[in-house]
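Lab notebook, bench 4. Still working through the backlog of constructs that have no structural model yet. Next entry is a single chain of 331 residues. Request: give me the structure tokens for it.
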Amino acid sequence: MRRILLFGAFLIAVGFALQGQTLAQAQPQLLVAYKNVDAVPVDPLAPIWDAVPATNVPLAAQLGVPPALQQATVPAISVKAIHNAQWIAFLLTWDDKTRDVTATKPDEFRDAAAIQLPLNPQGTAVCMGVPGQAVNLWHWKADWQEDLDKGFRDVVDAYPNFWGDFYPFAEGKPPYRMPKDFVSSDARAYMVGWSVGNALSNPERVSPVEDLNATGFGAATSQSNQNVIGKGVWKDGKWRVVYARPLTSPDNQDAQLNPGQNSMAAFAVWNGSNREVGARKQTSAWLIMELEARAGEFNVMRDGGMLIGAAAFGAVVAAGIIVLGLRRRAR
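Model written out:
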């Protein structure tokens, strides 16, 4: 009887193979960027997001490079993606009981999240790329979001009793605040990080998302052209963060995305209350990202990390029944 069941499974597999069907092909998890004819939303609370299917993406602690994270504090995120043939937007949602939005003091760590896209649509090493195979990183930072929402959070905000009674060429009265009291080029020259273009020191940023490239751990570099916009909202113990950018750009440091052409994407999250920063983070594996060419174009069953054609799904069910029969027979 066992031989008959095995032979039956073999015949089913051969039959589908002759029809050009695959029983089940294990591959990276699938993320679909759905085509929408309307404007792409940047607001994380926009009603349109309720209608977009979500992909649950598992995260694991980054253990390969020090300082490693020993245990993931954010085990998964929900990812939604939508485009209108001109712009693409991602909505990342994850549980976080603490809202960590400052990183001015040495013992403060912010919440953050990033999307990683390969410059080569076929992908590269998921760990920040490798030399010769760069990745494009979109890094949202909760403290940058706080700066945009409430004004640049200066030293005087972190240390209310701080008093600086003199800055060269500063205008106004102490305590001086950035950037309004440092409008002259002479005054800005003494703000060293700002004057040399350090993105972390810029009090006039217009987006909470930094656009970077990397070719391996420790090689992340901010782009001269910042093309990604976004917005993050913490509500009911969850972060909801939107990233948006034109699908294509003239910048050869940007990942170019084309409807109808698959690419890849990976994700990372930092939990500030757990002192996570730099390599201390949780990350995902690469996901295959399908950019719909036309709205409503669905021709496969999508279930987590499996891409299964309808006919092949029947074969999987049949094979499962056979395997179950074998197990019962063995008992």
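Notes after review: The radius of gyration is 24 Å. The chain is about 20% helix and 25% strand. Flag for follow-up if needed.
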